[in-house]
Design a protein that fits this description.
Blueprint: E1 5-8, H1 13-22, H2 30-51, E2 65-70, E3 75-80, H3 87-94, H4 101-111, E4 133-141, E5 149-154, E6 159-165, E7 171-178, H5 188-198, E8 206-208, E9 211-212, H6 229-240, E10 248-254, E11 260-266, E12 282-287, E13 290-293, E14 308-313, H7 328-352, H8 354-374, H9 379-383, E15 389-390, H10 399-404, E16 412-417, H11 421-425, H12 428-436, E17 440-443, H13 448-455, E18 457-458, E19 461-465, H14 482-496, E20 500-505, E21 514-518, H15 525-534, E22 544-548, H16 553-561, H17 566-584, H18 591-615, H19 624-630
Parallel strand pairs: 2-8, 12-14, 16-17, 16-19, 20-22
Antiparallel strand pairs: 1-6, 2-3, 3-7, 4-5, 4-7, 5-6, 8-9, 10-11, 11-14, 12-13, 15-17, 18-19, 21-22
């Protein structure tokens, strides 16, 4: 070799390297990703030149990346068969922060603190090697046939040297002599884990000590027509760490408004359960097949955190370390495009296979409901994906299906919250709708109340809770006159006191004697339950009204008994109210009600016993002597007529 050319670093170099090593990178292991990324870029450029017909030195050399570790010498070497570098390119590329531009680099860092937009202006990814190195040696040979090899060496502190290299193959090889604290990076198992984490999908073979490492292909970059179900399932199991295959897969590619290749999967089961911490989005963000973030926050809305997969975009401007997105506006655009297309995909799947989509909704529907409550931008699209049973359809259906069945004159969508179908069908709030022939959505999740409250309308039709529906049935012939009904309402109100705001006759009850109705137009019984659970230590400030059915036998009987038996009538009025609370799911403490029921039962049994005692004296057997004394002439002991004495 020739005599090395020694170049002293300028005074700013120590400061520059300190910034690169200690400020721009979160983890030391990133240096392996950076060097492999540079190797992949150099190899891709070589392939492009070959395709263009450019004369290439060693044209038959295999395009691959080789990584070799030596845990005895404590070194790691990363080599490629790419375009390599000439002497001038070596100085320009590796000496970028070592020439007069270093001052400009420092100025850029100061001006863009926390978010430096300088990638491409200064080639500093290579210098991440000095986080772990005592010395870095670069062997390189340009692809140009007439050129020769060169060697660049530096300790990253005071100077670097360049000298001619002899018999070097095309490409670049970087040998790193590791610091004592970083000898782990000379261990094959440690390096293999890093390669698989960050560089597993690089478009060229990566060999570690002669063994292939990246055996899984980046299938998201390939055409759908080239892939089979087995290809997708194998990839999902690898990236999703799931033994089962996915329920849905969404393979999407676009060139505008952004260059995107995305492959997202919906698992068969959700691992997130109520009361447990929220799961994290398991979608990896790549730029040209190089991992940027393993759990990319902000890439998709939080309510889509059940998705797994990858998103790759060449349009991502990255900061100097490739670790953080720079352009939040661009990330938001990426979020918007992906979310909109995925929701469109779900809508198409729901129309194509309703049964399969119902299975999906049972498992992941609460995520979509969360989106309706929290994401105004996608609320309308999410509304189309909701599925509920209705009073006429036991199989869950969409809101669009409900609207398609609306009868003439119905301009509202009615819904009813209940524990199950039976409870909804038996609810007093459903009676008026049923009598009118109106269909009702049956919602079994109490949090659906908030979904409906945020959604408010669908397809121009207002969403209305059944208990808030303004239903007026044709009044049957009344069993109580208007004055009697008014007195009965006053009696019940006086009995219940502050428990209710108002007692009034109902225009919608058919079979039920009474129902509680929230006085606040914005409040419903299910919302009251939720607010009560959120305010356990305080009193609920909201009060409700009681509607009664004056034609129900219980109310007619109560009207007749309220003056004759006032004490029992008050207990019946209180029980009537508690029964309405139970029907609405608002009963909080049943102890007082149980005591009242026992009291009423005791009075009922006592009354029956009293009636029985009054009926028994005529049937009670009397002593034989008394009976005999009062027996009519000619009767025997049994009270029978004695036969006549035959004539003698």
């Amino acid at each position: 070799m020739s005599t090395p050319e020694k170049h002293n670093f300028q005074a700013e170099i120590a400061q520059l390297l300190d910034i690169v090593i200690h400020s721009l990178y979160t983890d030391k292991e990133i240096f392996i990703r950076e060097l492999i990324s540079n190797a992949a870029d150099a190899t891709e450029k070589l392939r492009f030149l070959q395709a263009a017909g450019t004369p290439i030195f060693e044209p038959d050399r295999e395009l691959k990346i080789s990584v070799n570790t030596d845990d005895t010498a404590h070194t790691i070497a990363i080599a490629d068969a790419g375009i390599g570098m000439t002497r001038d390119e070596l100085v320009e590329n590796l000496g970028t922060i070592a020439h007069s531009g270093s001052k400009a680099f420092l100025q850029q860092i100061k001006e863009n603190a926390g978010n430096p937009n300088i990638i491409g202006q200064f080639g500093v990814g290579f210098y991440s090697a000095f986080m772990v190195a005592t010395k870095v040696t670069v062997y390189t040979r340009s692809h140009q046939p007439e050129d020769t090899g060169w060697v660049w060496t530096s300790d990253g502190v005071s100077s670097y040297e360049i000298e001619a290299g002899v018999d070097l193959p095309r490409g670049t090889k970087i040998v790193i002599s590791l610091k004592d604290d970083d000898k782990e990076y000379a261990t094959a198992s440690r390096v293999e884990g890093i390669i698989k984490q960050y560089s597993n999908f690089v478009g060229f073979p990566i060999e570690l000590n002669g063994t292939a490492v990246n055996t899984i292909n980046a299938i998201w970059t390939r055409s759908k027509s080239e892939l089979t179900d087995s290809d997708y399932e194998e990839f999902y199991k690898f990236i999703g760490h799931d033994i089962d295959g996915p329920q849905y897969r969404f393979h999407f590619s676009a060139d505008a408004p952004l260059a995107i290749n995305a492959l997202l999967f919906v698992p068969k089961r959700s691992l997130e359960r109520p009361g447990m911490p929220k799961s994290e989005l398991e979608v990896q963000l790549y730029c040209r097949r190089i991992l940027i973030q393993s759990k990319a926050k902000g890439l998709l809305p939080e309510w889509l955190r059940f998705l797994k997969g990858v998103v790759d975009s060449e349009d991502l401007p990255l900061n100097i370390s490739r670790e953080t997105m720079q352009d939040s506006a661009l990330l938001q655009k990426l979020n918007k495009v992906l979310t909109g297309r995925f929701l469109k995909f779900l809508d198409e799947e729901a129309k194509g296979d309703a049964e399969k989509y119902t299975t999906f909704f049972k498992e992941f529907g609460h995520f979509l409901k969360e989106g309706i409550v929290s994401d105004f931008a996608h609320r309308d699209a999410l509304a189309k994906l909701l599925r509920y049973e209705t009073s006429v359809a036991e199989a869950p259906c969409g809101l669009a299906d409900y609207v398609s069945r609306l009868p003439e004159g119905q301009n509202e969508i009615y819904y009813l919250i209940g524990q199950n179908r039976g409870a909804c069908l038996a609810s007093p709030y459903y009676e008026g709708l049923k009598a009118k022939g109106f269909e009702a959505l049956f919602l079994y999740d109490p949090w659906d109340e908030f979904v409906m409250d945020h959604l408010r309308e669908f397809d121009g039709k207002k969403l209305v809770a059944a208990e808030k529906a303004e239903i007026a049935l044709e009044a049957p012939e009344s069993k109580l006159d208007e004055a009697a009904v008014r007195l009965l309402c006053n009696f019940i109100k006086e009995t219940l006191g502050d428990k209710v705001d108002e007692v009034k006759p109902s225009t919608r009850l058919v079979d039920s004697p009474a129902a509680v109705v929230e006085g606040d137009a914005q409040m419903t019984s299910s919302m009251r339950r939720i607010m009560k659970s959120m305010n356990r230590d305080g009193e609920n400030p909201f009060k409700h009204n009681l509607e009664i059915n004056p034609n129900h036998p219980m109310l007619v009987g109560l009207d007749g008994a309220r003056e004759a038996r006032p004490a029992v009538s008050k207990q019946i009025a209180e029980q009537l109210y508690d029964n309405a609370l139970i029907s609405a799911g608002l009963m909080e403490d049943p102890q007082a009600m149980l005591k009242r029921i026992n009291s009423l039962l005791e009075q009922l049994v006592t009354a029956e016993k009293s009636v029985g005692k009054k009926a028994k004296p005529s049937e009670t057997a009397k002593p034989a002597a008394t009976q005999g004394a009062k027996r009519s002439k000619g009767e025997n002991a049994k009270g029978e007529k004695a036969p006549a004495t035959p004539p003698k």
